[in-house]
Amino acid sequence: MVKEINTSGLSREYIIHPGETLAEVIEDRNMTQRELAIRTGMTEKHISTVIHGQKGISVAFAKKLEYALGIEASFWINLQANYDRELLELEEMNHISEEETAVLKRLKEVTEKWQSFGWLEKDSDIVTLVLKYRKLLGVSNLLDVPELSYSAAYRIQRKNTNADPFVLFAWQRMCELLTMDMQITDEMDIEKLRQIIPQIKQVMFMQENQIQKTLADLFASCGIAFRVVPCFKGAPVQGFIRKTNDERFILCLTLRNKWADTFWFTLFHEVAHILNGDTKPVFVDFESLGGSVEKKADQLAGNILIDPKEYQIFVKGEGYANPDEIRRFAETQQVKDYIVLGHLMKDNLIPWYAREKYEWDI
Hints:
By secondary structure, this protein is an alpha+beta fold.
């Protein structure tokens, strides 16, 4: 068990009971406990037990003290509340198990990133981190994370992914926190999303430092909070779509291998999931996920980027053997040439080699 550490810097002897303050007040006024008992209508025994920390100050007694001492009841109520909270924190710290602190080892990469966001303080002791993680993840014990329905996506995919339930849960929570304050339209507008797909495609021609903000603005106009988020070992995820309790839609994307063509295909793959209605209640798109839902999204994403019929004509003409022809065909599809190159590589028509990469600090 982890013991004797207090996140507020207090040990048990420094947690001051409100009775000590009461004793100081009546001593400054040369008032005896008997006189205070008379003024408040309480027994001397009750006054004594409060002053000696054996009993707390109730709301009713706080009001009586307001009349008797001229000090507002809220002062005494707040003193008692702070005392109770500090005692509870101390109790929590003395009952953090080794199993729960061990979870932090699995969250090491998450912790480093969250410290850079300012969500966790650097050089925090292990108990502080456990308590902070409990608040950020919304659980009273980190060991409960794998049992939450929120982790259902992990349980479904655990046979064919290397997902860690704690890392995956933290990753999903990070997506929510990073998009929480983004300004978007009130409701999701699927039709508008369909209409602005050509505009979304054109963003790939912008400077790299403009891409993320422009995409966020376009998606916001459709009622979607969009963000490119960090990826972690243990959360082999391409995208995350969720409808929150306040009816917001979240769309988050990772940049796992940084290839530009992969990024754009993945983006339209997630858009395809939204258009296909694959968003209830939470949709986590794993790298290894398969099945008809994924194939349907892949097909729609591919069709958005490159017209399949025109691509077949291009392939039959063996234009892929000439870089100039590849660029020309990309122009007809209103995409960058790396999109065509990526498609040709996937179809094993040309060898795999390095393409354009996005080096974004996320």
